[in-house]
Design brief:
Chain lengths: 485, 504
């Protein structure tokens, strides 16, 4: 592997480069003229160009390693696309959300774009250094984002909590990397694997390194018992930021984790395998359990995301051929569904009224006032619950296939029990939308929501949820092609 | 081409109902009625045009009268594969007929959000028809789950809050969680079955005709069969899994109850006949004693609890548990006569329970209570209704001349040849059936009247529904041969596959 950077290499990295430049341009745009619409447009345009360049890269530039740090393969391209689309969705959401914000609104886009750069780096990283850098670029802007509407103490609290969590997770990450380096003398995933695979017995130091690495990721992916920050940050952060956390951030970390497992199969062997099985089961049960009594939709979605990543772990720990497609499908369906659910939340609230409209009572009888908005939320809830005809079912179906192939009977039992619990709270949200009681507080989503960009994004997600649920064949074809090098 | 139409007419009709509500409140009702009439008409056309006799069925192989196949997810061997034979056709006819009755009986009851109500009702009916037609296990599961969501809304949004119950949302949640969680077990079992078959054939396929020939080791077969059985048992409902049913019935609107008792419960029996028995013959035979005794327990349990109910709808709900117990016994006895009895019993119970629930709804519309203690002496206070109620109560106790008698008689006759003890014990429950039926009639219609004020009798629409149901039940009781002919071929093969498992 050459350490020289060729033109081909630079071209292969163009999506990341374009996104980085977008961040610079957004900053300059803000400096030139503070204008909400124009600054947001620069960010959206930049990400769209990044998406185009990504398409161009996947068509015309060969899949390759870029120095020792990055690899641009079909897998990375696929997930970069997912990340960029989800970021775009979050950007449009922010535009709708920030319309009435009283303070400076424009930096939101700068931070979101920066964070996206980190996510893209993570998707391509195959080396501890790029892994770490990606993780930090992803997280640091998120502190600011979570605390963006800092007039509200909840938001400030969320920012600080996320800061503390990230610092802890980073400490674990660095220590884990250091231990692995001490044992193997290599920082690239492949190098660590090569060095460890040669040993007759896995040394204790390496186990400890792997475990610490996993813990750091578990914090970010909020697996039980590292989940304590999730509900508070989800609740406190402004709704579009929560959406970003739930989709872009989690996708990027999981993608990097998968690459790690793929290049370093030792991570998924022996005690580590068992540990991950237990954590998967715990996340499913505890996440669902805690969500049962929530009356705040954002907290509820936070707990449910814990459970969903628990489900996802069923496929992650499996060693079958079906694993990567199943994870990809599940992630895509989860991202689409979350974006839709948060999109409804965003269109229903703005910080200008004080808190977000995230209490269950805010949604009471929504169907009879804004039928389409409520219909999207209904489909999103059904999709999260994994009911057929929605994307969520296709995802869950693939997980079941992987689980049965790998004979994870206990995890499948947890899946059944967890889904039954999940139904209870998803149904609660869903039925609230349809309840109408006299004298209920008027809900004030703007009437013309369908014509705004945020509304268009939401409708697109709703269509995608149904489309993937009814005709998943195209998605499955794309996903099967997204293999790692 | 008729098969997909059977499914899509209700689905499209439902969407239309939702949208035309803006124009007029009556329009959704007419559209719903028209779509279900159309479905029934298409079903009748299938009866006339097909040949369902045993003589023409080719030996052992698939013998679908009509098939429809479309690629859906080729990567996993999933196709949109529909097929119809005598059994599914009868079930589709039942769905169409009771669907019409359900729409008509909610003509006046439902006043708020009419369009959305019929959207749910029609999507539920469309899903049920899908279940009866699907020949691809994935598709089957798809419809199996899809039909639950509209039912959930029917109970949760238009249900009643019975005074001593925990409310309609609680009931709807319970219904949904029970059926959905058991549905996931079914999904896991289906996937396991498919993967085993894929391992053998080298090609992954969810097709029924392929999966039917899967070879499995006894233990695996037993486990996978249990996954299927539990899912069907919850829906049927079989004793330990029944607790959602009385709640759901007590809170559901009339159309929901008709739908639930008349049609949804039948999907479970259909699933057992179509999938559990033919795919897992060895395991099913091994499991048969357990299943039959569960059935017998259900018969007695439902009957005894029915006697103690004060809520008229709960009473009818418990009788459903009792009647479905007979169906379970009949299915697992695996005797040709009993299986034919099962078909008649399913139809007859659908009609008689549907009729009783419609009458309950009509009583509620007039008295605003379903509490038997608040009734009494109704016979003198209204025309038509008590007489119809007496008829359906008599049908429910299995009076000769009604379809229920034929069904129960054939089931017991067939089962007696195979499992005399079970059949003998089950016969005892017929006495209890007489007790609860007469209790219902006595408490509601006879005895001292609470008030002398006359109540509104049945109007033309209500009498019309009732007359049609009465006539069909009588025809089924007096001349069931056409129905038996329709189901003869498929029941013969079901019995054959079950009793003489091919050495696989």
């Amino acid at each position: 592997m050459s350490t020289q950077l060729t033109l081909q290499n630079i071209l292969a990295l163009s999506p990341i480069i374009v996104t980085s430049f977008t961040a610079v341009f957004v900053m300059l745009a803000i400096a030139i003229k503070r204008n909400h619409f124009w600054n947001a447009t620069v960010a959206v345009l930049g990400l769209n160009i990044a998406l185009l360049s990504l398409w161009w890269v996947s068509q015309n530039v060969g899949m390759q390693h870029v120095t020792e740090l990055f690899v641009v393969d079909r897998y990375a391209c696929f997930y970069m696309a997912v990340i960029l689309v989800a970021s775009l969705a979050c950007l449009t959401m922010s535009h709708a959300y920030m319309e009435k914000h009283s303070g400076n609104r424009e930096e939101m886009y700068l931070l979101l774009v920066l964070s996206t750069v980190g996510a893209l780096v993570l998707a391509c990283s195959c080396h501890m250094a790029s892994f770490f850098i990606g993780m930090e670029i992803l997280s640091v802007p998120l502190f600011g984002l979570a605390a963006y509407s800092f007039q509200r103490s909840r938001s400030l609290e969320a920012g600080i909590k996320y800061l503390v969590l990230s610092a802890t997770s980073t400490a674990f990450l660095l220590f884990g990397m250091a231990l692995l380096y001490a044992q193997t003398g290599s920082l690239s995933f492949a190098g660590v694997q090569a060095s460890l695979a040669g040993l007759p017995v896995m040394p204790q130091l390496a186990w400890a390194g792997c475990a610490l690495l996993f813990v750091a990721l578990a914090f970010k992916l909020s697996f039980v018992p590292f989940h304590l920050w999730t509900p508070d940050v989800y609740e406190g952060a402004p709704a579009p930021v929560t959406a970003f956390l739930a989709t872009v951030s989690k996708t990027a970390v999981l993608v990097a984790f998968l690459r790690l497992l793929h290049s370093m199969p030792v991570m998924n062997s022996g005690p580590m395998h068992d540990l991950m099985l237990v954590i998967a089961g715990l996340s499913i049960i505890v996440g669902n359990w805690l969500a049962l009594t929530q009356s705040n939709v954002k907290r509820l979605l936070g707990y449910s995301s814990i459970a969903h990543f628990g489900y996802l772990m069923i496929a992650v720990v499996a060693g079958t051929r079906m694993r990567d497609p199943a994870i990809a499908i599940y992630l895509v369906t989860y991202v689409i569904t979350s974006l839709a659910a948060f999109g409804v939340l965003v269109l229903a609230s703005s910080p200008y009224q004080g808190a977000d409209a995230d209490g269950l009572h805010n949604f009471r009888g929504l169907f009879w006032k804004r039928p389409y908005l409520a219909a999207v939320m209904t489909v999103a809830m059904l999709s999260l619950a994994g009911i057929p005809m929605t994307a969520g079912f296709i995802g869950k179906f693939h997980l079941v296939v992987v689980g049965v192939t790998s004979s994870f009977w206990w995890l499948l039992a947890a899946l059944v029990v967890g889904s039954a619990m999940g139904l209870y709270y998803y149904l609660r949200v869903m039925v609230t939308l349809f309840l109408l009681e006299p004298g209920v507080r008027r809900f004030d989503a703007p009437l013309n929501w369908g014509r705004t960009t945020g509304g268009a994004m939401l409708l697109l997600m709703a269509v995608l949820m149904l489309l993937v649920g009814i005709y998943p064949q195209p998605l499955m074809q794309v996903v099967v092609a997204a293999t790692m090098m | 081409m008729i098969l997909p139409l059977l499914i899509f007419i209700p689905l499209l009709g439902g969407l239309l109902c939702w949208q035309v509500e803006r124009m007029s409140r009556a329009a959704p009702r007419w559209i719903a009625l028209l779509s279900m009439l159309l479905v029934t008409a298409l079903g009748v056309q299938l009866v006339l045009q097909g040949d369902y006799s045993l003589a023409t069925a080719t030996g052992g192989g698939a013998h679908w009268q009509s098939e429809y196949r479309l690629h859906w997810i080729p990567a996993l061997g999933i196709s949109f594969h529909l097929g119809i034979d005598g059994l599914s056709l009868l079930m589709v006819l039942l769905t169409g007929g009771l669907g019409v009755a359900a729409i008509l009986c909610s003509w006046r009851e439902i006043q708020k959000n009419v369009g959305f109500f019929y959207l749910n009702l029609l999507w539920n009916l469309g899903g049920v028809i899908g279940v009866f037609l699907a020949l691809d296990m994935f598709l089957f599961f798809f419809f199996w789950e899809v039909m639950l969501v509209p039912m959930y809304f029917l109970i949760a949004l238009w249900g009643h809050n019975a005074p001593d119950g925990k409310g309609r949302i609680h009931a709807a949640n319970k219904f949904f969680i029970f059926t959905q969680a058991s549905g996931l077990l079914l999904l896991i079992a289906i996937v396991a079955l498919v993967l085993i078959a894929a391992h053998q054939n080298g090609v992954i396929s969810f097709d029924y005709d392929v999966l039917r020939h899967t070879r499995m080791s006894p233990n695996v077969e037993y486990l996978v069969m249990l996954g299927f059985f539990i899912a069907f048992a919850v829906k049927m409902p079989v004793l330990p899994f029944h607790s959602w049913l009385p709640d759901a019935h007590a809170q559901a609107p009339t159309a929901g109850s008709v739908d639930l008792a008349g049609i949804l419960l039948k999907t479970a029996a259909y699933g057992l006949l179509r999938f559990a028995l033919p795919i897992f013959p060895h395991a099913s035979q091994e499991f048969a004693p357990v299943a039959m005794w569960l059935g017998v327990t259900g018969i007695f349990y439902g009957a005894v609890l029915a006697c103690a109910q004060t809520d008229i709808k709960r009473l009818v709900a418990y009788t459903s548990i009792s009647h479905m117990g007979f169906v379970l016994v009949g299915i697992y006895s695996g005797n040709m006569i009993a299986l034919q009895g099962v078909v008649i019993q399913m139809l007859a119970h659908g009609i008689s329970a549907g009729g009783l629930f419609i009458l309950c709804g009509e009583i509620y519309e007039r008295l605003h209570t379903r509490d038997l203690r608040q009734m009494g002496g109704l016979w003198s206070r209204m025309t038509w209704l008590p007489a119809f109620a007496l008829f359906f109560a008599a049908a429910s106790l299995g009076l000769p001349g009604t379809g229920n008698f034929v069904g129960e008689f054939l089931i017991l006759l067939g089962a007696f040849k195979v499992v005399p003890v079970v059949a003998t014990v089950a016969t005892g429950a017929l006495i209890l059936a007489a007790v609860y039926s007469l209790l219902l009639v006595q408490k509601a219609f006879f005895g001292p009247s609470r008030s002398e004020e006359a109540l509104e009798g049945l109007n033309l629409r209500e009498r019309g529904i009732m007359l049609v149901l009465v006539v069909s039940l009588l025809v089924l009781g007096v001349y069931p041969q056409p129905v038996l002919d329709l189901s003869e071929a498929i029941m013969f093969y079901t019995q054959h596959w079950y009793a003489v498992p091919v050495l696989k």
